[in-house]
Amino acid sequence: MKRVFTPAWVRYSLGNWGGWWRGHWRVTLNRRCIHWKWVRELELILARYHHHLFSEKRYSPRTVSSYEHDLNDFIAWLNKPLDKQGGEVAPVEPAVLTVQTGQVRQWISHLHRKGLSGKSLQRKLSSIRRFYRFLLRENLVENNPVVDVQSPKHARKLPDTLDAETIERLLTITADDVLAVRDRALMELLYSSGLRLAELVGLDLHDVDTYQQQVRVTGKGNKERYVPVGRQALAALQTWMQQRVSLAAHGETALFVSKRGTRLHPRSVQFRLNHWRLQQGLEQHVHPHKLRHSFASHVLESSGDLRAVQEMLGHADISTTQIYTHLDFQHLASVYDKAHPRAKKK
Question: Which of 18, 93, 101, 161 could cysteine-pair with 14, CB 3.0–4.6 Å?
Answer without folding.
Answer: 18
